[in-house]
């Protein structure tokens, strides 16, 4: 699943720029561009939205009053040309505050903060792919290309067929995001059962990778192998 978002701003030029920025980030799905808070209220009633890009200074109902009125508000990134609103924005636990005009780089920093808050939503599969943040980029990786995952302290090394990605996350989080065909076989290793060629002793071979299998995980691993072989 992607992060569903809406843009709420009464300035057409600001909406156009934000829409372009949103469409450049694969993890975001733009549900609607709203020109005022009343329109945004209707959209929130009819759609599941995780993020609002919200202008503060709008006619009739300000962005701040609108956001305070929500009973279960999504994450919010405030956008405004007035720096004096910054403190008030953070009082309602805004993820970030973007002062117009802002660059794509600054926008993307704010989006990454949202993805951190929504974990493990950030890692949820999109069709047959998963979104992984590595080296300050958000990568879309086909699940079928992941052979195994190695835990390295606070990081994960995602081993693909011909390269790897280093991700700041935990084995627990990524297992929640991946399908059941991925199994923990060691305190520091996860493997894609579908890529297993053979098991020799306590070493599983997946493609070119040799993965240690811990004794406490071996029974579940053997059961998963038998099930995958019977399909």
Give your account of this protein's structure.
With about 230 residues, this protein is an alpha/beta fold. The protein folds into two domains: about 5-120, Response regulator (Rossmann fold, 3-Layer(aba) Sandwich); about 130-230, OB fold (Dihydrolipoamide Acetyltransferase, E2P), CATH 2.40.50. Helices cover about 30% and strands about 35% of the residues. The protein is built from seven helices and 15 strands. It has a five-stranded parallel beta sheet with strand order 2-1-3-4-5, with helices on both faces. Strands 10-9-8-12-11 form a five-stranded antiparallel beta sheet. The radius of gyration is 22 Å and the shape is elongated. About 30% of the residues are buried.
Please give the CATH architecture of the largest domain: 3-Layer(aba) Sandwich
Silhouette: elongated
Our count of helices gives 7
Count of structural domains: 2
Mean pLDDT over the full residue set: 86
The helix content is 25-40%
Which labels suit this protein?
Rossmann fold; 231 residues; OB fold (Dihydrolipoamide Acetyltransferase, E2P); five-stranded antiparallel sheet; 7 helices
